[in-house]
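Input (structure):
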């Protein structure tokens, strides 16, 4: 099978336990859980049996060990994860709003993730990559942007493919160079995985048909519009394919989109049709929200197949 590689932040997530809870006063929290959008993505890919690895950095601390233990257990290649003594592993504190939204307090640029660089181990991992996946959250500093762009160019130069999930976080949008980096990566992108209004992030058009036409004209081969519980829609030169989502009891939405992306990309790398890939991706996203913790709902292929059978899909 093809090798899938990503790069970016690895962190722990610590969550408020009550909807409407604030961080302006003491309150109950749960965690730490292994997290970071690229880490969640690659953990799900590994659980599906996709050969995969990540270029990242953690501190020489319990938070870093927690993440590395988890990724290794999911058969993710962590040989390119640098361990930095004296610098903490990144963290995110999350609280939940009554309307279903979330707010984050991040420590990423000043954590070990801020020291992500292309090392010899990273180059060795990248040399085996058939596909490189970019998470927008990973573009939080000029140094990490440089790593991501180098990875994109190296994989494309060998005839490989690239996917991009904008995964925008309001708390990170002011990162220097992020917008320009997203534009540069989109120009080299094969699979684009926007959620909601992200479909229109790079287009003049503000309607579905017009936006998709612009993206395909820019060279994107697969546009996958994620719609949460409503499923997803795939667009390519052959047309439009919509696959509905699955009704499940939501416990924690964190990581659902990352798991969806891993499911879709992994299946496409295995030669699945868009409809087949969407079905697996929707199952990954649905299963992800049934557990508390960003990676706790990542599923094996056997679990996905069992879920699909139960759903009659």
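Output (sequence):
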């Amino acid at each position: 099978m093809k090798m899938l590689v990503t790069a970016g932040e690895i962190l722990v997530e610590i969550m408020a336990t009550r909807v409407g809870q604030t961080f302006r006063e003491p309150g109950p929290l749960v965690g730490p859980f292994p997290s970071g959008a690229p880490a969640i993505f690659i953990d799900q890919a590994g659980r599906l049996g996709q050969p995969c690895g990540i270029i990242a950095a953690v501190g020489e601390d319990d938070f870093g060990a927690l993440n590395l233990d988890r990724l290794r257990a999911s058969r993710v290649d962590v040989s390119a994860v640098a361990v930095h003594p004296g610098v903490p592993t990144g963290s995110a504190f999350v609280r939940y709003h009554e309307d279903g939204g979330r707010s984050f307090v991040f420590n990423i640029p000043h954590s070990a993730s801020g020291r992500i660089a292309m090392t010899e181990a990273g180059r060795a991992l990248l040399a085996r990559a058939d596909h490189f996946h970019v998470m927008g959250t990973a573009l939080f500093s000029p140094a990490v942007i440089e790593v991501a762009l180098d990875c994109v160019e190296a994989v494309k130069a060998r005839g490989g493919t690239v996917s991009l999930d904008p995964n925008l976080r309001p708390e990170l949008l002011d990162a220097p160079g992020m917008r320009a980096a997203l534009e540069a990566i989109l120009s080299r992108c094969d699979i684009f995985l926007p959620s909601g209004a992200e479909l229109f992030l790079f287009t003049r058009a503000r309607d579905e048909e017009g936006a998709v036409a612009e993206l395909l004209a820019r060279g994107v081969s697969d546009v996958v519009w994620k719609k949460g519980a409503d499923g997803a829609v795939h667009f390519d030169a052959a047309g439009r394919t919509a696959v509905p989502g699955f009704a499940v009891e939501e416990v924690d939405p964190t990581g659902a989109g990352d798991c969806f992306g891993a499911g879709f990309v992994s299946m496409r790398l295995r030669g699945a049709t868009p409809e087949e890939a969407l079905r697996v991706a929707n199952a990954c996203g649905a299963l992800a929200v049934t557990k508390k913790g960003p990676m706790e709902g990542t599923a094996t292929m056997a679990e996905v197949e069992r879920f699909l059978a139960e759903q009659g899909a």
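Notes: The first helix runs from residue 37 to 47. The mean pLDDT is 94.
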